[in-house]
């Protein structure tokens, strides 16, 4: 579990550092550019939720066949995952053309911020195929027990981004468009690299397939996982919209704080990938005892991670925020969020590992329902009442997030233990 999770965690660290690099260079363009990129990022992740679902769905479908040693089935799934990724990239682009600008406005972008947000979105939407294909290939490789290739791609992408951002943004004078263009170029290269590794690993020539029976089975895993991610993005979207009532700079502070928190949570997310691969392969081999052991050990490893990360998140948050902005408003909002959310840090870990086990067991519906309640319905309702109707301060939203996450973690743990106990012995 540790052997698989370390490369996955490192890859996610590089991916988040990649996003923070974009935010960092946007800060050099000015606070309006930083706010615009923060808002655009919320919209773009909303449209990419299906790609993240493809990664989870691919891993869930392929890992059991890996455990059974059925190579022909694995190859067929990989081709169909590639075909689905292409189809959904077209869908994401089409939806983005229709909905991007209204969403940016809804998120509270002022007239001076909206054009900057749209600059970023038009370019990244045009290159969305690189994102979806890389997600699909990464999911297939994780199912095969390969977390190193995606780590390597993300690490190289981070360093390439650090070189291309200043070149496009300042050297060519493209501004925010340059930040987006660098991302599109790197993600397309990442997709091509991962697909090449996958084709060599399986000794096949990848041919995107559109077998409807395969796609229908795959969609049963992809759509709940995607919708779970979608509710997470929508929940964040609503949170950003409510924070936007206090000003775009508060949005920037919350977004930067959220990205920093994600860096600290990345080891747990890397563990999540390892858990899904190991549990999925053991499901294919019919070893239910190993599935239960995987879950318990993942929670213990996650606890050790939390004990290291929580003090960093609380005490070093002012220093971390100061790396991205000199605005006191942006900095204070980010620090406040990070310190309050330390209370829920281990609860996130429990949620991640519970969802990974359930997806490996091909039971994606409960995480979706829990996600709708935890990330969308309950916090949106409570925060709307607190902020809009009762005129509570912005900080009350952060405490709502903590309480809801902690209760959800308890529910997820109880449900996952029950489902594992029902597996054939």
Give a nutshell description of this structure.
The protein has 425 residues and is mostly helical. 86% of the residues lie in helices and 0% in strands.
Q: Could you characterize the architecture of this molecule?
A:
The protein has 425 residues and is mainly alpha-helical. It contains 16 helices and no strands. It has helices spanning 2-29, 31-47, 49-68, 71-106, 114-126, 128-143, 148-171, 176-202, 212-243, 248-285, 288-315, 317-322, 328-341, 345-360, 365-389, 395-421. Helix 9 runs parallel beside helix 15. The chain is globular, with a radius of gyration of 21 Å. It starts with a helix and ends with a helix. 58% of the residues are buried. The model has no long low-confidence stretch (mean pLDDT 87).
The class by helix and strand makeup works out as: mainly alpha
**Radius of gyration, in angstroms, nearest whole number:** 21 Å
Name the shape in a single word: globular
Kindly estimate the percentage of residues that lie in beta strands according to DSSP: under 5%
Range of helix content: over 70%
- Provide a count of the helices: 16
* Major sheet characteristics: none
Order of helices and strands: HHHHHHHHHHHHHHHH
Low-confidence stretches: none
Mean pLDDT: 87
Distance between the termini: 22 Å
Number of strands: 0
């Amino acid at each position: 579990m540790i052997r698989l999770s370390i490369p996955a965690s490192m890859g996610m660290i590089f991916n988040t550092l990649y996003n923070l690099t974009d935010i960092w260079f946007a800060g050099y363009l000015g606070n309006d550019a930083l706010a615009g990129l923060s808002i655009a990022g919320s919209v773009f992740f909303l449209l990419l939720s299906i790609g993240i679902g493809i990664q989870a769905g691919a891993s869930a479908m392929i890992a059991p066949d890996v455990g059974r040693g059925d190579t022909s089935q694995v190859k067929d799934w990989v081709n169909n995952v590639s075909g689905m990724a292409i189809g959904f990239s077209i869908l994401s682009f089409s939806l983005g053309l229709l909905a991007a600008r209204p969403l940016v406005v809804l998120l509270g972008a002022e007239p001076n911020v909206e054009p900057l947000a749209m600059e970023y979105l038009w370019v990244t939407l045009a290159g969305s195929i690189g994102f979806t294909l890389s997600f699909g290939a990464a999911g297939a490789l994780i199912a095969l027990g390969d977390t190193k290739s995606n780590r390597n791609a993300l690490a190289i992408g981070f360093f390439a981004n650090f070189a291309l951002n200043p070149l496009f943004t300042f050297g060519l004078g493209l501004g925010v468009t340059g930040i987006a263009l660098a991302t599109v170029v790197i993600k397309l290269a990442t997709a091509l690299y991962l697909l090449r590794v996958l084709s060599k690993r399986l000794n096949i020539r990848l041919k995107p397939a559109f077998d409807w029976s395969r796609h229908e089975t795959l969609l049963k895993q992809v759509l709940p996982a995607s919708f779970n991610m979608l509710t997470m993005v929508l929940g964040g979207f609503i949170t950003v919209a409510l924070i936007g009532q206090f000003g775009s700079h508060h949005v920037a502070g919350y977004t930067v704080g959220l990205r920093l928190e994600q860096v600290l949570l990345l080891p747990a997310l890397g563990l999540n990938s390892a858990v899904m691969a190991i549990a999925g392969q053991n499901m294919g081999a019919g070893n239910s005892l190993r599935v239960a052991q995987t879950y318990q050990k993942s929670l213990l490893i996650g606890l050790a991670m939390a004990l290291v990360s929580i003090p960093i998140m609380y005490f070093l948050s002012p220093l971390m925020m100061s790396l991205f902005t000199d605005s006191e408003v942006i900095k204070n909002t980010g620090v406040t969020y990070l310190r309050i959310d330390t209370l829920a840090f281990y609860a996130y870990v429990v949620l991640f590992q519970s969802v990974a086990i359930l997806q490996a067991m091909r039971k994606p519906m409960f995480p979706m329902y829990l996600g709708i309640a935890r990330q969308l319905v309950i916090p949106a309702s409570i925060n709307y009442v607190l902020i809009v109707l009762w005129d509570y301060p912005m900080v009350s939203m952060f405490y709502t997030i903590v309480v809801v996450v902690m209760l959800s973690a308890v529910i997820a743990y109880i449900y996952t233990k029950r489902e594992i106990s029902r597996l054939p012995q």
